[in-house]
TrEMBL record:
InterPro entries, sorted: Cyt_P450, Cyt_P450_E_grp-I, Cyt_P450_sf, Cytochrome_P450_monoxygenase
Official protein name in the record: Cytochrome P450
Family named by the database record: Belongs to the cytochrome P450 family.
PANTHER family: CYTOCHROME P450, CYTOCHROME P450 12A4, MITOCHONDRIAL-RELATED
Record-listed heme binding positions: 472
Pathway: Secondary metabolite biosynthesis; terpenoid biosynthesis
CC annotations in GO: membrane
Organism: Cylindrobasidium torrendii FP15055 ss-10
Subcellular location per the Swiss-Prot or TrEMBL entry: Membrane
Cofactor(s) needed for function: heme
Keyword terms: Heme, Iron, Membrane, Metal-binding, Monooxygenase, Oxidoreductase, Transmembrane, Transmembrane helix
């Protein structure tokens, strides 16, 4: 046995060493004057610390930005260097000005593909342009307004469901559970599928049950996992192995992808047989037409169509439900804001009566929109956007780096292949952008006009919907559904905290019980009728 181990070491160690040197030979290096925290692991860099060693997602980055400045150097796998920035000008340059010159990094693409296959969110360059061009009409304001009755009817069903849950569960309600189902029903019925999941009423809805566990285990980062991801980047053929991984996270992802594609196939085939309206701009009609198109710039293969259905479900469901969950959480901790919002809701009700509100009614509500924007700022669901430079480039800075010998550095040269990470948390709480109270959830800040010097995000200039050509296509959709659900819930219920909650880092940043994170994503609140 010992003899075998020696031979194994003799064979594997040098091969591994050669392999590593071959693969890492072209790693670009950042200028040495860029400051950054030391890393405890050469193998995994800062990844394990960022995922596993913070109680609240973002805390470690906030401390680094405070100590070293808005743009810093962190470590990736096997000593790679990452430019991590919360600087408005740098983020604007990477996401907006340079756009396709900074592609989505392979590591991000691998994780996204594992959940959705290669839909719009997982592809780069010209393929991304084609996918985005096909889908864009479905997200126009005019098109989305036609879904308002769906948002309102789901919000109504949610109210009934929560009323029943209060009775059943003695007033403590896991609001994330129900908001997850409401978000799924909204996406299914309005945009992606023209399909009724009815998950608020059907406890056994298979898709809702799979999606409620999709992010379980998405917070675990280990050195072997980092090395696995690194190997998949270098040897793309290995990426198929994710589908056979025994890890809980991957099993949930594979199950979700399979179900979303099966469902996609059924409804797309049905739509193909019945569709006659060639100008319809709902997503399903758009996908069917793209599949049948003869024009290669507008064509999506059948595989691409099915990947979009999985993409839209996963991109829209947990993001919306977790953001809404944080809205209720923050309001539960801040009774004054909750009262102010309810007062505004009552004023609107007395003006418009019992009938449905229009989009203008929602848009005119200062406190409602302030609460949602402030929650988006405070709780981005995706903590960072990882990009890789396709060319040598120069990134400008709003907050210069001062070197130890006193030089002021206002732009950073980067080489082709350089990893650049735009920090949503960091930017959304950057005191240079938001003021000295950036770390306080204070919706009133939105009641006075926010003067952004540099445009960064898709909406309200926060980075939570990302920005530029890869920014969230569904931001308007998300805003409209969050407006109608928040309105309905605050009109009917009073929310108070019930247990300590933490913002768990991971693939997505989601609420967990501070004392029992192993129970997965959840947020129990004490809920009473008003
Ligand atoms: C509060 C809710 C939401 C948040 C916080 C959010 C956030 C984001 C972020 C950060 C990205 C960029 C991801 C990246 O760079 O890897 C993104 C992309 C995307 N989102 Fe959203 N999203 C939300 C809701 C939605 C909804 C409801 C839909 C559709 C129904 C949607 C569809 C998309 C799509 C298609 C992309 C890919 C865009 C592209 O790569 O061109 N999102 N979202």
């Amino acid at each position: 046995m010992a003899f075998d181990s020696v031979w194994l070491a003799v064979a594997v160690v040098p091969i591994g060493f050669l392999l590593f040197h071959w693969a890492s030979a072209g790693y670009p290096r950042l200028p040495s004057y860029i400051p950054g925290p030391p890393s405890r692991s050469w193998i995994a860099g800062h990844a394990v610390d960022l995922w596993n060693k913070q109680e609240q997602a973002g805390d470690l980055e906030f401390a680094w930005f405070k100590q070293y400045g808005a743009t810093i150097k962190t470590k990736g796998t096997f000593g790679t260097e990452i430019l991590l920035t919360s600087d408005a000008k740098a983020i604007h340059y990477v996401l907006h000005t340079s756009a396709y010159r900074f592609e989505k990094a392979p590591e991000a693409v691998i994780s996204i593909t594992a959940v959705n296959g290669k839909g719009v969110i997982a592809v780069n360059g010209k393929t991304h342009q084609r996918h985005r061009k096909v889908l864009s009409p479905a997200f126009s304001e005019i098109q989305l307004r036609t879904f308002m009755p769906v948002f309102q009817s789901v919000a109504n069903t949610l109210t009934k469901t929560i009323r029943a849950a209060i009775e059943r569960d003695g007033g403590i309600v896991d609001v994330h559970h129900w908001l997850g189902r409401a978000s799924l029903d909204i996406i299914g019925e309005s945009s992606a599928f023209n399909y009724k999941f009815n998950s608020l009423e059907d406890e056994n809805c298979e898709m809702a049950n799979i999606m409620s566990h999709l992010m379980d285990g998405a917070s675990a980062m280990t050195e072997p996992l980092r090395v696995g991801l690194w190997l998949m980047e270098k040897f793309p053929l290995l990426q198929g192995l994710v589908d056979y991984s025994p890890a809980d996270l991957h099993r949930h992802m594979v199950k979700f992808k399979k179900l979303a594609r099966e469902l996609g196939k059924i409804i797309v085939d049905k739509a193909k047989q019945s569709s006659t309206d060639t100008s319809a701009k709902d997503i399903l009609s758009i996908l069917v037409r793209a599949n049948e198109s003869e024009d290669s710039s507008k064509k999506l293969s059948e595989d691409e169509v099915l990947n979009q259905t999985a993409t839209l479900l996963s991109a829209g469901q947990e993001t919306t439900s977790s953001t809404l969950t944080w809205v209720l959480y923050e309001l539960s901790k801040c009774p004054d804001a909750q009262h102010a919002l309810r007062k505004e809701i009552r004023e609107v009700r007395s003006r418009v009566g019992d009938g449905p509100l229009t989009q203008q009614d929602y848009d005119s509500m200062e406190m409602l929109n302030a609460v949602i924007k402030e929650t988006l700022r405070f709780h981005p669901i995706l903590g960072t956007m990882l990009r890789v430079a396709s060319f040598d480039d120069i990134i400008p800075l709003a907050e210069p780096i001062i070197t130890p010998d006193g030089q002021t550095i206002s732009q950073i040269p980067v080489q082709k292949g350089q990893l650049v990470e735009c920090a949503a948390h960091g930017y959304n709480r950057n005191p240079a952008v938001w003021g000295s109270d950036a770390h306080i959830w204070r919706p009133e800040r939105w009641l006075t006009k926010q003067e952004a010097q540099v445009t960064v995000g898709m909406h309200a200039n926060v980075l939570s919907f990302s920005g530029g050509v890869r920014g969230c296509s569904g931001w308007r959709f998300a805003m409209m559904s969050m407006q109608s659900i928040t309105f309905e819930l605050i009109e009917n219920f009073y929310f108070e905290p019930s247990e300590a909650i933490c913002r768990r880092p991971g693939l997505l940043i989601t609420p967990h019980l501070a004392a029992r994170v192993e129970e997965g994503v959840k947020l129990p609140l004490r809920v009473t009728e008003v």
